[in-house]
Each structure stands twice: as C-alpha cells, then as structure tokens.
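Troubleshooting entry. The earlier prediction with zinc ion gave an output that would not parse, so I re-checked the input for stray whitespace and re-submitted. Clean input:
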Amino acid sequence: MQTMDLTNHFKKALFIPQMKATTKAEALEELLDLFVNEKLVKNKYIVLDMLNQRETLGSTGIGSGIAIPHGRTTATADVIIAFGRSQKGIDFDAIDHQPVHLFFMVIAHPNEQGNVYLPVLGSLVTILKDSHNREKLNTITTFEELVSVFHGE
Amino acid sequence: MGHKDLDSLVSLQDLDLMIEEAEDVEKLGFSITGCSELKVARKELSEKISKPLLYRYERLRGKLKRAIVPVKNDICLGCFLRQPTSIGAQGREGNDIFTCENCGRMLYWLD
Ligand SMILES: [Zn+2]
C-alpha cells in the first residue's frame, strides 16, 4: 500500500521519548495532555471520553508493541499525531496481549480539510507494520529522527 | 424545545457516524469487536422514532454524511446558508422538523 507523507502531522511539542504512564488510562491521558498543553485540544475531558469510548469498540493496540489511539472531535482543528514511547511497555489490551512501547495518538476534527484522517491512520498502520521502522522508532532520540521515518514513499 | 423525536434522531445520527467510522478503520487493520453492540443500540433507538421521520432521515443519510444539522444564529451548519427567521420560530415550536431549502438537511435549533 502507498503511504502518504505524514511529517506535517507531527509536532515537536507532541513527542515524549520516555513516557511516565504505567497503565492504559495513564497513557491516554499523558498523550492527550500534550495536545492540551499546546492548546490543540479545547476540552480535555470530552476528548478523553471519546478516546475511551473508542477503546471499548476494540483496542487500538494493533500488536507488535504499537498502539494508535484515535478519534474525531470538534475540540481540535486539524489532524494531529502525538508520539510517545515507553521503554518498559504498557498493558494496553493489545490484540496480541503484548505490552505496548510505541504510541501514536491521532486526533482529528470531524470535518477536517482534505479528508486525510483515514489515509493518515492507514499510512501509520502500514509504516508501523514494517519491523525495520519499529526498530528505528525504538532507538531514535530526536524529533527530527522521528519525522524521518514518516516521509512516505 | 423542539420536536419530540429530535434527541433520538440526533443520537441515531451520532451512532450511525460512529458505526461508519468503526467500519472504515477496521478496513485499515484495526480490530473492532464492539460494532455489533452499537448496531443493537441503533436498532433500539430507531424503533423509538416515528416511521415517516426515520424514512426521511435514512433517505437523506444515503446522500449526505450528515442528515440532521444544527442551526445557529439562523445559519444552517450543514451548508452555512442563512435560514428565514420565520422557519426558526416554527422549528423551535417542534410540531415538525424543517429542512434547509438550500442543502435539504433536517434542521434543529441550538438557540
Ligand atoms: Zn443547509
């Protein structure tokens, strides 16, 4: 599958190389707080509810140590991705029951310009299925290195 | 306050959008296990809505992503066209659900 260039959807302030969270609930909140601190999300608790509701439909822990919690909310303006990493790994009810190390939180406006939300999610899944990319993401230390994995092809 | 089926109709649309999106992300490789519960909830909710209204809604949903949209400051938030003030007064009364003359969506008033 063709992947799109995701670099414009990442932001330097939305990058945690070492997450503090140890539970699924803490992980969702820690990632969401990045959006809140950058004023990219207006109402934290509405979005947290939405993310939790989405998890009840099926865990966004897609296996191989990856989780992509996502959802739409009018509390934001665009399609934005936060990245967080946990060295220890977090139990996220992933489909393969393995702890999650790499988190990508994707928040989108219901009527975002250009309809890129689903293509963004699809590209993330495709890129992260590549074990070579996952290895890189486990070792990167800077935002620039992170973004370089998502240039698309 | 508005038509008696209004809340059910808006909730039905929320559910429909949620189901649609769940099916979309499932195609991308996410695991969706809770969709059948949503569909049960949808069925129960749809049975509370009068048949002609449900039919109107479903016909519109076949053509538009959002069949029912709010009006704020006399503006239809589906197509952003100004609505005649007279419709607003009748719409708020709640004897019927009005449609936007421009885009055809069903309307409800936020204010
Ligand atoms: Zn309209």
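This one parsed fine. Chain B is about 50% helix and 10% strand.
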